[in-house]
Amino acid sequence: MKLDEPHHPRPDDADARKAVKPVICYPPETLPAPDLAALTALRKSATKSAAISVLPRDAACIDVPAGCFFRIVSVQGAQVGDLNLWNTADLSEKFYSGKTRALHGTHLSTGDRMWSSFPTLRPMATITDDTLDWYGFDDFGGSVHDVIGTRCDPYTGQLLSGQPYHYCCHSNLTRALAAHCDLPLTVAESHVHDVLNVFMCTGFTRDTGQYFMKASPVRPGDYLEFFAEIDLTVGLSACPGGDCSSEHTSDSASCYPLLIEVYDPGETARAAHKPPAPNAYDRSHATR
Fold it and tell me: pLDDT, tens digit, for every residue of 96-122?
């Protein structure tokens, strides 16, 4: 929390200290770049092989083989979704939103990649198409598809209001993963993680640096499309905030379903795809 008035006086060199130019923490130039032209060409040969509807205030999971594409589609009204990714063969390898944010920025779009947790730290999926890429950043500093928010959850709700709310994205994803993988709820919950907020429009206020949300610009027919770099289990919650124009978790917000579609370029193309290798760090941590 920032105080309305500071308790300490400005030093004589305050302006000079504040004028120091920032340095990008993780320059992206050395990251392995996706071949978007090749992926675009490959996408033209892919046909829809599976689909699942995600009901409002609920979640669903679907498996996407490495070398396939998957698309999250707005189908009825403005609706945001909370996305989790897991390695189908090892759920402990999951999407790492914090490191993805550090590498690519607060909001993702075409060409950005979704990176996995330690110790693998490799691309799980590459964003190949985004019908909201025109939005950029607005005058409030807002943009779409953020990796800043965590996900609405029952624990924060209990903390702030004293009331449980079971149809938040954390609980939705827990139920969906438990059902999809035949896991106890407690085990499934341990794998649910911070999300990519698909279609959500967010940013930080200029004066206090607080996380804000505003009405999503998504409309029916818009989509965000990915290429699966490894075998993925994809989990998506249709957030109870709807378009997140007023409340983050709500029983009164208008909510709509979302659609996940899988597109397969064929067995030969999938076989030719080489999944990224796990991170090469030897995990010695200076003990060898």
Answer: 999 999 999 999 999 999 999 999 999
